[in-house]
C-alpha cells in the first residue's frame, strides 16, 4: 500500500520533528542542485533550523546572488534601466552584424574578396548577378520604349498642328485672291484707258500762249481800245494782255 497523506501541522514529538527536518532538508538541497543543473538557473537556498543553525546552497556565489536579489527587489528603476540597456546592447549587436553582412555581400557583388567563397557560394553569386543584369536590361528597354512612344505622340501632335496651319494658310490665300479679283473688277473713273471711254470730269484746256485768247465784244467807257493786230508799237504787249484779261468783269 502507498503512503498516506501527511497532515501538515507542527510535529509535537521533538525527536520525530528533528528526523523529519533532516530528511526534508536534504531533499530540498538535492532538488535545488538538480534545478540549477538541469535548467541552468541561478539558485540560492538558505535554511535556519529551530535551534538557529544555518544551512545554505548556492549554484553561484551566495553573495552575488543576494546582491542581485537586492537590486531586483529594492531598486526597481535601476533594474528597468539595466534591462533597457541590455536590450539596446543586443539590438546594436544585431544591427552591427547585419551591417557587416551587407558590406560583405556588396563586396562580393563588386567582385571583391571572392577568395574565401566556395563553389556553391560562387554559383549563387553568379545567379544573383545574372538576375540583376536581366532586370536592369528589362528596365532599360522599358524606359526606351516609353521615350519612343512619347516622341511618336509629339510627332503626331506636330503633324496635326502642321495640317491645321496649312489649312489656315490656304484659306487666307483664297481670301486674298478673291479680294484681288474684286478690286480688279471695279472701274476707275480717273483712268483714261477705262472700258467706257468717257470721262466724267470736265477738263479745261488753257492755251499755251495767253495772246491767243479771243476778244469778246464789250462796252468800253473812258479809254480808247487799241487793236493789237494793227501793229501799234506804242502800247506795250503787257497792257494789251491785261486789258483782254479784265474784259469779263468790267461790264
From TrEMBL:
Q: Which GO terms describe its biological process?
A: carpel development; positive regulation of transcription by RNA polymerase II
**Any idea where the K-box domain is?**
85-175
Q: Which UniProt keywords apply?
A: Coiled coil, DNA-binding, Nucleus, Transcription, Transcription regulation
**One GO MF term, please?**
protein dimerization activity
From the Swiss-Prot or TrEMBL record, give the protein name.
Agamous-like MADS-box protein MADS3
Chief location bin: nucleus
Record's keyword annotation contains Electron transport: no
Where is this protein found? Answer: Nucleus
Q: Which residues form a coiled coil?
A: 119-168
Cellular component per GO? nucleus
Q: Which PANTHER family match?
A: SERUM RESPONSE FACTOR HOMOLOG
User: Residue ranges of the MADS-box domain?
Assistant: 1-61
Keyword Transcription regulation present in the record's keywords: the answer is: yes
Amino acid at each position: 500500500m502507498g503512503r498516506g497523506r501527511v497532515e501538515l501541522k507542527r510535529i509535537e514529538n521533538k525527536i520525530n520533528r528533528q528526523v523529519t527536518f533532516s530528511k526534508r532538508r536534504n531533499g530540498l538541497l538535492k532538488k535545488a542542485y538538480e534545478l540549477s543543473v538541469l535548467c541552468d538557473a541561478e539558485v540560492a537556498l538558505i535554511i535556519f533550523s529551530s535551534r538557529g543553525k544555518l544551512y545554505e546552497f548556492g549554484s553561484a556565489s551566495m553573495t552575488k546572488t543576494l546582491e542581485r536579489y537586492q537590486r531586483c527587489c529594492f531598486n526597481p528603476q535601476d533594474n528597468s534601466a539595466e534591462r533597457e540597456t541590455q536590450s539596446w546592447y543586443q539590438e546594436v549587436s544585431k544591427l552591427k552584424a547585419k551591417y557587416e553582412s551587407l558590406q560583405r555581400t556588396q563586396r562580393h557583388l563588386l567582385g571583391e574578396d571572392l577568395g574565401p567563397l566556395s563553389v556553391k557560394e560562387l554559383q549563387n553569386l553568379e545567379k544573383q548577378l545574372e538576375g540583376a543584369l536581366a532586370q536592369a536590361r528589362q528596365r532599360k528597354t522599358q524606359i526606351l520604349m516609353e521615350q519612343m512612344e512619347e516622341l511618336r505622340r509629339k510627332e503626331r501632335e506636330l503633324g496635326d498642328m502642321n495640317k491645321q496651319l496649312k489649312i489656315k494658310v490656304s484659306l487666307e490665300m483664297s481670301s486674298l485672291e478673291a479680294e484681288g479679283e474684286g478690286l480688279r473688277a471695279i472701274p476707275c473713273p480717273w483712268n483714261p484707258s477705262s472700258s467706257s471711254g468717257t470721262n466724267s470730269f470736265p477738263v479745261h484746256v488753257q492755251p499755251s500762249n495767253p495772246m491767243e485768247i479771243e476778244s469778246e465784244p464789250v462796252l468800253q467807257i473812258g479809254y480808247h481800245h487799241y487793236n493789237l493786230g494793227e501793229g501799234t508799237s506804242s502800247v506795250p504787249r503787257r497792257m494789251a494782255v491785261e486789258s483782254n484779261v479784265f474784259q469779263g468783269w468790267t461790264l
